[in-house]
Specification:
- The protein has 136 residues and is mainly α.
- The chain has one domain (3-133).
- The chain is 78% helix and 3% strand.
- It has five helices and two strands, in the order ααββααα.
- The protein has helices at residues 3-27, 29-35, 52-75, 78-101, 108-133; strands spanning 37-38, 41-42.
- The protein has a two-stranded antiparallel sheet.
- Helix 1 (3-27) packs across helix 2.
- The longest helix has 26 residues, at 108-133.
- It is globular.
Length: 136
Amino acid sequence: MTRQRVLAAGLVLLGAAHLAWGVWGWLAPAHFFDAFPGFGRQWTAAYPPYNEHLVSDLGATFTMIGVLLLLAAAVRDQRVTSVVLVGVIVFGALHLTYHGLDRGSLHGLDLAGSLVSLALGVLVPAGLLVLARARG
């Protein structure tokens, strides 16, 4: 698989994940709060109290990130892709920092899973940024 195909696939996968989380959070904020990330886990609910406005805004943010990632995949312009990925990295780093400092009521495997997934939210876009900026 070529570098460009790996980059495009990564952008699409990240975009689809963010879009799925975003639409879920925006359309059903209470369900998102109670059930994210799914599979019987309840990571968002570990940070009470529930606030419909904030969860809806988070859904809108994830939706925006998903749309930008999918547009970057479609446009295939190095500058656009780089700007989008830097934005995703900044969001991911700030999100990871918050949860690294405030663990809510998470512990054990849920805490580890949450922090690992948040770290991947920085590392995967950083790897894609390296691919996007590579020559050749």
